[in-house]
Amino acid sequence: MNRLVSGIKPTGELTLGNYIGAIKQFVQLQNELPDTEFFIFIADLHAITTPQDKQLLKSRIKEIAAFYIACGLDPNRVNLFVQSEVMEHALLGYIMESTAYIGEMERMIQFKEKRRNQEQGVRTSLLTYPALMAADILLYDANIVPVGEDQVQHLELTQTLAERFNSQYGDTFVVPKPYITKVGAKIKDLQDPTKKMSKSNDLSVKSYILLSDNLNQIKNKIKSAVTDSDTSIYFDEVNKPGISNLLTIYSALTNLSIEEIVEKYKNETSYAGFKIDLAEIVASHIGNIQTKYNELIASNTLDEILDQGAMKAKMFASRKMAKVLNKIGLKRKK
Ligand code: TYM
User: Fold this and answer.
1) CA 196 to ligand 1 center in whole angstroms
2) With 123 labelled, which of 40, 232, 248, 300 sits at a CA distance of 20 to 30 A?
3) DSSP secondary structure of 95-125
4) What's the CATH fold of domain 205-294?
5) Residue 197 in contact with residue 188, Cβ under 8 Å?
6) How far, in Å, is the centroid of ligand 1 from the Cα of 151?
7) In terms of Cα–Cα distance, which of 51, 68, 132, 93 is closest to 293?
């Protein structure tokens, strides 16, 4: 059976980048791959690799769960759970740390970038984080892992660790494949379209769109997105990164190809009309998600869904873990 695994860290509010690069793929694949089992989780253990406010973390875990469902994930189809509620993640994470070399961890681009922003010292888990991520995936024998571009290096390391473990102890783990969306694997910052859209490293709120932003704010952010002084609309990531990013967002949310969108606006003499249309598209898309989100966050069903999801994930994970422990000689009884 095919299995799909992915997760999101509850370190900040969800951005349009998280939606287009990750969640939208989960929903699409849920509908396209009827024979695949889905494990989608909230990566709360990954969140504490950097300092977090306790209350905020607690509420963000629930918010992400509600957004997953509001964006279209079907809890009857997908095992939806909180990572720390399935403790096998941490145990296999440790075994992956014992499979990986320090040099491999130190080479990770995200580690190099994130360590620079740490004011109170760099926590050990920020370095070993990719071992835990490998465990998240290998625990479920996942062969499909939908992620944005920034996670590809971690995925490659997961493949290396799975292969190394398999060659040392015999066939144990499925070697997973990343699934990267063709359009929108790296949504850019609206004010500096050479950088990834991210909440954490941006000073200006105009740089990113949050799924929780109010709709007028969203429209204004699109309208004030940085674009070049040329006025023709076409895709060129090197010379026109701003307009190319907006075309990508447009395409991802409408399922029109970039070529179709370029054709539609080929007679425009400024960017204004295009931006106004895109502002409406983004606001209406997120508006629909927010309506469902508001119903869910106020109900008790979320806890029931997460309890159920953790139970099912745990059933799979504990069986896998027993096999892994046995392979390395840590299991006392058969
Ligand atoms: P995280 O929480 O930083 O991001 C969650 C997902 O959103 C994608 N993403 C983007 N995609 C396109 N454009 C952007 N601007 C953008 N920003 C974020 C990310 O690539 C990711 O897919 N380590 C992971 C979470 C994780 C995980 C896993 C993922 C933990 N264990 C196992 C897959 C499988 C992370 O920090 O993602």
Assistant:
1) 12
2) 40
3) HHHTTS-HHHHHT-HHHHHHHHT-SS---HH
4) Tyrosyl-Transfer RNA Synthetase (1.10.240)
5) yes
6) 6
7) 68
Q: How far is the CA of 6 from the centre of ligand 1 (A)?
A: 8
Boundaries of CATH 1.10.240.10 in the chain? 205-294
Which residues, other chains included, contact 211 with Cβ-Cβ below 8 Å and sequence gap of 6+? 13, 14, 15, 16, 18, 19, 67, 286, 289, 290, 293
Residue whose Cα lies nearest atom 36 of ligand 1: it is: 9
Asked if residue 22 has its Cβ within 6 Å of ligand 1, the reply is: yes
Query: pTM of whole model > 0.90?
Result: yes
Amino acid 43 reads A
Please write the tens of the pLDDT for every residue from 201-225: 556 899 999 999 999 999 999 999 9
Output the residue whose Cα is nearest ligand 1's atom 19: 148
- CA-closest residue to ligand 1 atom 18: 18
- Please write the tens of the pLDDT for every residue from 65-91: 999 999 999 999 999 999 999 999 999
What's the CATH code, domain 2-185+299-328?
Answer: 3.40.50.620
Distance (Å, whole) CA 25 – CA 150: 15
Structure tokens that stand for 37 in this block: 């089992």
Rounded CA separation 126/129 (Å): 5
